[in-house]
């Protein structure tokens, strides 16, 4: 029993090589949006994330809400309130599809003062691990 070499045929080696070469590693990351009324009145900096990434909206001690809307025009028509007005807002949004998404705060005067952001969602990236070179086993 000891000293016995186990040998696999060429088909098993090819299947193993195919399996290793087709493994995909997908990694999600996160982004943070400081959900505050910005100084200077401009919109918050645009963000770009990938499908599956976590976007954390993080508010301050002021009262803020979070709406997903069709544009940054400060209108909630056709929009969805994701988080009602609260202090220290903390909301995580995870996109499931590519596209351009807009978010606003509708607390009195906040959107017109610049509390709005556009987030572009790209396809999830995937990377292939470096595959080991396939070697054919030898028979004794």
TrEMBL record:
- Signal peptide (UniProt feature, chain positions): 1-28
Question: Which InterPro entries has this protein been placed in?
Answer: Cupredoxin, Phytocyanin-like, Phytocyanin_dom
Q: Name one GO cellular component term.
A: plasma membrane
Give TM segment ranges. Answer: none
Query: Can you say what this protein is called?
Result: Phytocyanin domain-containing protein
Q: Which UniProt keywords apply?
A: Signal
For this UniProt entry, the molecular function terms from Gene Ontology, in alphabetical order, are:
electron transfer activity
Keyword Nucleotide-binding in record: no
Specify the Phytocyanin domain's residue ranges.
22-123
């Amino acid at each position: 029993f000891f000293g016995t070499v186990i040998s696999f045929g060429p088909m098993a080696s090819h299947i193993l090589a195919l399996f290793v070469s087709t493994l995909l590693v997908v990694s999600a990351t996160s982004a943070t949006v400081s959900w505050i009324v910005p100084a200077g009145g401009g919109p918050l900096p645009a963000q770009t994330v990938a499908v599956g990434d976590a976007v954390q909206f993080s508010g301050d001690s002021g009262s803020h809400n979070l709406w997903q809307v069709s544009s940054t025009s400060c209108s909630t028509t056709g929009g969805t309130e994701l988080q009602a007005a609260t202090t220290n807002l903390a909301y995580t949004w995870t996109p499931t599809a590519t596209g351009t998404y807009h978010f606003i705060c509708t607390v009195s005067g906040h959107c017109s003062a610049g509390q709005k952001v556009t987030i572009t969602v790209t396809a999830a990236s995937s990377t292939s691990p470096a595959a080991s070179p396939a070697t054919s086993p030898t028979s004794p």
